[in-house]
User: Fold these one by one.
Assistant:
Number 1:
Amino acid sequence: MKFSELGLAPEVLRAIEEAGYEEPTPIQAGAIPPALEGRDVLGIAQTGTGKTASFVLPMVTILSKGRARARMPRSLVLCPTRELAAQVAENFDIYAKYTKLTKALLIGGVSFKDQDRLIDRGVDVLIATPGRLLDHFERGKLLLTGVQIMVVDEADRMLDMGFIPDIERIFKLTPFTRQTLFFSATMPSEIERLTQTFLSNPARVEVARQSTTSETIEQGLVFLRPSRRDRAAKEKRELLRALIAAEGEACTNAIVFCNRKVDVDIVAKSLRKHGLNAAAIHGDLDQTTRMKVLDGFREGEIRFLVASDVAARGLDIPSVSHVFNFDVPTHPEDYVHRIGRTGRAGRTGKALTIATPADEKLVAAIERLIGREIPRIENPLGGATSPAPAEAEGEEAAKAPADTAAKGGRKRSRRGRGGSKSRETSREADRTGTAPQSEAPAEKAAEPPAAREKADATAEEQPVESAATEEKPSRARRTRSRGGSRKTEGQRDGQRRGSDQKAPVVGMGDHMPAFLSRSFERPKRGK
C-alpha cells in the first residue's frame, strides 16, 4: 500500500513525497482511512511505529478546508511533555507546508504573551500540554467550543504523569460532536475507562500486541553485584563506560536513562570527565536549555544524551543506535518506551540494561510485561551474568560472625560487668566463639579423686556468700560494694553519701548547715 491510496489531500501527498516517505507504516495504514471518514480512532501501537503521522496527516487533510476564528482553535492536540509537543509541531510544519493552516504551541517555559498573541489571531491547530492549556483557559484567553478534532497522544504517559483529571476536564470543555483520535502504546485499565467514556464507537487499530518491544531492537541485561553498597553508583558508572567501550564504533550515539534527576547530572558529568561527549536533559532544566540539548543531539554535536523519563516518550530521533538503562525503570511500561528510542523506522538498534540484586523484582515485572526473557550478557568488568541471591545471603551470613568478632572486643559482657577478670573472659569468648568456662572445674579435673572429694566437702561447709563469689563474682562484688546482702533503702542511701552508719539517715544527717547551729537570744515577753 502507498500513501496515495489512503485518500489524503494532494498537498499532503506532495509534502510526504518530499519528506522521503513512500509507504505507510501499519498504524498509519490502519488509522488514516477511518480518521478521514470522521470516525473516532483508538490506536494502540508500540513506540517508534509512526503514530504521530497517523493523526497529523488526516488532520491536515480535514482542516485544509475552513478558516480559524480568534481564540477558538479548530483542532487540539494534547501531549504529555514539552518535547513531544514540540515534535508534533515540527511534524505539522513538514506535512502542512503547502497549506495555509496555522498552529500554536502552548508549553511551559515560554512567555504567555507570545502565546496569547498567536491565539488572538486564530489558529487551526493548537498543540499543548494539559497544564499550560488550562492556564490559558482559566485566564479567559482561550475557548474550546470550536474544536472539531481532538487528539490525545501518548495517553498512557498522561496516566503516569497524573494528567488524567486534567484530560477529563478538557474533554468536557470541548463539544460532544468532536472527532477524537486517541493513541497509546499500552492500554491500562484507567485508559480503557477513559476511552469508553469519551470515545464514540471508535475504530480500534492495534498493530502489535500491547506492551511489546520491537523485533528490530537487540536487548541485553548486564548484572552487577557491587562490592559495597556505598560504591554501587560508582561501579555502575564504571560498567556503563565499559559497555560503551565494548560497543566500539557501532555506538554512534546513545541515550542513557536514569531514574532520578540527580543521577542524570552525575552520570553526564562522569562521561564528560572520561572524554565522552555527553549532555543532560531532565525536567528541572528550562525549556530553552532542553531544546538546545535536543537539537545538539539530533545534529550529532552531542553523542550521549543522559536523560530522565522526560525523554522516554515520543522523541523521534531516528538515528539513535543504542539505549543504555543506567537504572532499571520502576514502571515496566517505561522500559518499552525507553528502548523504543532506538530501532525506529525499520532501523536496527541495541538496548542494554544494568541491573543489581535490588532490581530483581523490577526485571521480573518487565519480563512478564513484554512476554519474554531479556537475554543476559557477560559483564565486561567480570562477575556473574545473573543474580544469585542465595549465594549472596550465604556470603553475608559467613561475614556476620567475623563482623561480630571484630566488634566484640569493644563490647562489655553483661555477665562480666563486675570485674576485669570477667571482662577478659568475655572478650576471649567473643574472639573464639566458644562459651566461657569457669576455672574451678578445670582445677578439679587436674586434682586426684581423693583431693577432689575433700575440696567438695570443704566447699559445702563454706558460707553461701563464698559460694556465690566463686560462681558469680560480679554479682558478689556488687553485693559487697552495697554493704553485704539485702539492705534497706536508707542504708544504701547512707553508703552512697560515704557514711559508715548502718541506720537510715534522718533529716539532714551530718550535713547540717552551720548557720542553723548558731545560738541566739529569744526575745523576752512584754518588751
Note: Confidence is low (pLDDT under 50) at residues 388-491, 496-501.
Number 2:
Amino acid sequence: MGELGAFLKVHRVGFDKRDPRQRVRDYRQYFTLQPDDELQRQGARCMDCGIPFCHEGCPLGNLIPEWNDLVYRGKWREAIDQLHATNNFPEFTGRICPAPCESACVLAINDDPVTIEQIEMAIAEHAFANGWVTPNPPARRSGKTVAVVGAGPAGMAVAAELNQCGHTVTVYERDEGPGGLMRFGVPDAKLEKRIIDRRVEILAGEGINFRYNVDIGRHTSAAELHAEHDAVVIAIGSRVSRDLDAPGRNLEGIHFAMDYLYQRNRWVAAQEGRPAPRPAPGTEITACGKRVIVIGGGDTGMDCISNSHREGAESVIMLDVYAELPANGRDPRHPWPLPPKRTATTYALEEGGRRRWGTEVTGFGGRDGKVSHVYSRQVTGTSSRDLTPVPGSEFVLEADLVLLAIGFEHPEHEGVVEQFGLELDRFGNIRTRQTYRTSEAGVYACGDARIGQSLIVTAISEGRKCARIVNRDLGGSPMDADREMLAVGAWSGEADRTLRHEAEAAGTVRPWEEFFSGPGTRPE
C-alpha cells in the first residue's frame, strides 16, 4: 500500500484554507482540496499497517488503505468504486465528518496522520466532475413499498440501499428540503447545500420519491402511513436539545443553538433564491452587533461561532467545561486510537472569538426581561459529569445573546413515535434490541433516533445496516452491498454483530447471554 517508506519523507498537507479575514465575509466553503499531485503524495503516506486501525475507527468500515493506494497510483475511477462499496455519501463525510479514522491512524501515535478525509472528498469530487456518479436504478422492482421518515443522512442511506434492492421507497421529510441537520444545522461554510442537492438528484433519478413539508404524526397519521406501506423506517434524528437548568434561563435572548442555526441556514438559502420560510415576526435570532456567549465546546458550538462572525457580532466567547488541553495539544483522557473530544483550535476559532476552558455556567442576569449577564465559575474535572468548582473563581460576562450548544437528549416523542406506541430505552431513544426492529411489527428505527446523538458517518452506517434487516424481512435477496463486502472480506466487527443479532432474533443461534454473563460483559 502506498509508497514504501513515504511516511518518513512526505509530511502531511491538509486542506487549503481560505484566509479567515476574507472567508468571514461570505458563506462559501472555507477550504479547498490540494492539487492532484499533492493528493497522490499524501496517499503514498499510507504505510501498509499490519493492522489498519483506521478500519476500526471508521463506523462504516471504509476500505481506507485500498483507496489511498489507488489515489497514489492515479486510479481515481477505481477509487470511487472502493469508496462507494462502503459509503453512500463520501462527499458529505469528506467535508463534515470529524474523521475518527485519522485519530486511529497508526501514524497518529507519534506523527501527523494520513489526510484520509481530504483524500475521500477528492475521490468523490473527481467522480462527480468526470460523470462517474450517475443514477443507477434497480433492474427490477419487488412490489414492496417502504416509507422512510426523515431525510437526514441515516434516512437517505437506508432509502438508497432499499431502493437498490428493488423496493419502492418514499422519504417523508417535515422540513422544506433534504439533509436533516446537514442542511439546517451545518453552515454553508462547511457544507454548501448544493452538495446535498446534487446527491438527492441522483437518488431521485434512481427512483426514490422525496416528499417535503410532510410531518408524519401531524399531516399524516402513523396508522395511515403503516397501512400504505409494507415497512416503515423511522430516522428522525435526535432533535430534543439538552437544556440548562440555571437561574434566569427564561430571559429573552437565551436560545438553543439549533434554533439559531436553523434560522441562519434558512437565511442563507433565501439569499441564494432557495425556498426557505422566514421566522415569525419578533422571533428572529441574530448575532449582528451583539455580545455572544456560546455555552458548549463541540462542533455545534463552533458552528454558532462561525455564523456569529459572519453576521458581524461585536464579540464571541465560548464557555467549555472541558479542561484546557496540554501544550502539545494531545488530550491524555483520549489516547490513541480514540478520537479527541476537543482540539487545540478549529476553523471557527481561527476566524476569531475566544474559548474559556474549564468553565461552568451557574446562572443568567437580565434587564427588562432580556439577558445581560452570564454568571460562571472555573471548574475541574474530565467532563460535565464530574465537575468540581474552584473556590473563589466566580466571574461575570456581559451578553446580549446566549446560545446553548450542550448536545441533544433524544428524538422527539410527539407525533410518529407516540402514535406508533414504540418502546423507548432508558435514554428516551427508540428501543430496537440491536436488530433495528422496534416494538411495532413492520416498523424499524436507525440513526440518532435509535442510538442517540452521534456522527454523520455513524448515521450512514446505521442506515446501511438497517436496510439489510428490512430487506430480509421483506423477503428480498442478499443485497449487492452484502456481496461486495463478502467478496473483499471487509465485514467490520459492527456488521458482524448486526448479522449475529438478526440470527439470534430468528432463533437460529444461541443468544449472547448464553456465552456471556455478568454486568458489562454483553457485546455492544
Note: Confidence is low (pLDDT under 50) at residues 483-524.
